[in-house]
Amino acid sequence: MADPFPRGEEDYKEPPAFNVPSPVLWLIMTMVAAFAVFAYVLSSDMQDEAIVTFALFPVRYFGPEGGGAFFTFPGGAAGALWTLVTYTFMHGSWVHLGANAVWLLAFGSPVARRLGTTRFLVFYFVCGIFGALTHILLYPHSIVPVIGASAAISGIMGGAARFVFLSGGPLGALGGGAQVPSGKASIGAALTNKNTLIFVGAWVGINLLFGPTGFTSALGSSAPVAWEAHIGGFLAGLLLFGFFDPVPMSPSGGPGNVGYGQWLGGGR
């Protein structure tokens, strides 16, 4: 019996079994590779050198309290720039790395689909830089290194909060709204959405609760959490997302009339 609804090959594609956007997958693989080399290839002395070279040290930018040059760090002024990015690839343990990978998968995937590869990666690192600068300004003379992708991922979460809970967003059904493409998500629209406010409040509360006290790793050792960098990255993502969002606005200032595939960032 003939198919009453014939479809050409171009009308149907089997969904991929592993549907993770490529920039998210690239970031996770790079972080895993970086930590594996650090933990299993480098000697103890080389690990110390790698931390000094690639981790974020606030004292590097302002010197020790009472004055002093920061050019004693490897790379000098250039190193002061690259560590704003390289610290996001370093982690203290597999637990630390695994937790960040889970959050990046959950929130990075919808943001990457919406922004496309180039915009997503620039947005990710901009959020990481803003998180780093927040920590540096609050602790300008600190000699404690900051490592981890948490600030950048917090920025991705802030960007996701601009659209995932709105009508048409990936989690818009939580509010019972019709699944219609939401267009560009304004800060006002996001922050008047109940689910968005609950998410933002819970996220900030978790950082304020666990940040000052640190957390206990799987090995039982306590490690400080640079929660101020997380807050800085999150606010950067929340406030700057509109500059990276490719979904257009209509002349009236409302969401543009875009198709669902374009809203997801397909083809970008």
Please give a structural write-up.
This protein has 268 residues and is mostly helical. The chain is 54% helix and 1% strand. It has a two-stranded antiparallel ribbon. Strand 1 (215-216) and strand 2 (222-223) form a beta hairpin.
Give the helix/strand class.
mainly alpha
Write the H/E string, N to C.
Answer: HHHHHHHHHEEHH
Q: Give the low-pLDDT segments.
A: 4-12, 172-182, 212-223, 249-268
Strand content: under 5%
Find the count of extended strands (DSSP E, 2+ residues): 2
Biggest beta sheet summary: 2 strands, antiparallel
Q: What shape does the CA trace take?
A: globular
- Count up the helices: 11
The strand line-up of the biggest sheet is 1-2
- How far the N terminus sits from the C terminus, by CA atoms, comes to 40 Å
- Specify the helix fraction band: 40-55%
In oligomeric terms, what are we looking at?
A: single chain
What is the residue-averaged pLDDT?
Answer: 76
**Rg calc:** 21 Å
Topology readout:
Blueprint: H1 22-40, H2 44-54, H3 59-62, H4 76-86, H5 94-115, H6 117-138, H7 150-160, H8 187-191, H9 194-210, E1 215-216, E2 222-223, H10 227-244, H11 260-263
Antiparallel strand pairs: 1-2
Helix pairs in contact: 1-5, 5-6, 5-7, 6-7, 6-10, 7-10, 9-10
